[in-house]
Amino acid sequence: MDALDHRIVHLLQKDGKMKIKEIADQLKLTNTPVFERIKKLESQGVIKSYRADVDLHKIGYAVTAFCTVSLERHHTEIILQFVEDIKKLYDVSECYHIAGMFDYLLKIHVCDMDAYHHFISEKLASLPNIGRVQSSFVMSEIKNDPVLPVLL
């Protein structure tokens, strides 16, 4: 990726619905090279998708929690099964394999504390090989900016 690709990615991160012409105007280019670069970035997997940034509270998700999980055993087949099981849980929006005292960090969105209790006690607890679980709840969101700075 060159500096121009980084600038295109930056603009699309800020507004995924930005038109080719708008990007070209900002970069002082014609439409064709911008279009070709975007298609190349998509085919290379740099741009993975386009999404709407939704206000979770307005659609009924009042509770966001981060949940750390430790597995009891760390055999390859058990880890792969955990990963597949987590991918199927709708309440989990993000899952990271982490280093430290826990194995995984989950980001969970639910409508209320009863739903979170159900998630922990019925869904997560039903998965095999769960060792320790610890939850932290978001009181307020200070910064949530998926736009990365442009690398030059």
Q: What do you see in this structure?
A:
- By secondary structure, the protein is of the alpha+beta class.
- Helix content is 38%, strand content 20%.
- The protein is built from five helices and four strands, in the order H-H-H-E-H-E-E-H-E.
- It has a four-stranded antiparallel β-sheet with strand order 2-3-1-4.
- A hairpin with a 6-residue loop joins strand 2 and strand 3 (104-110).
- The longest helix has 13 residues, at 31-43.
- The chain is elongated and about 55 Å long.
Mean pLDDT: 94
The percent range for strand residues is 15-25%
Number of strands: 4
Main β-sheet description: 4 strands, antiparallel
Contiguous helical run count: 5
H/E element sequence: HHHEHEEHE
N-to-C span? 10 Å
What value does the Rg take, in angstroms?
A: 20 Å
Key words describing this protein structure:
single chain, about 150 residues, alpha+beta, four-stranded antiparallel β-sheet, 5 helices, 4 strands, about 40% helix, elongated
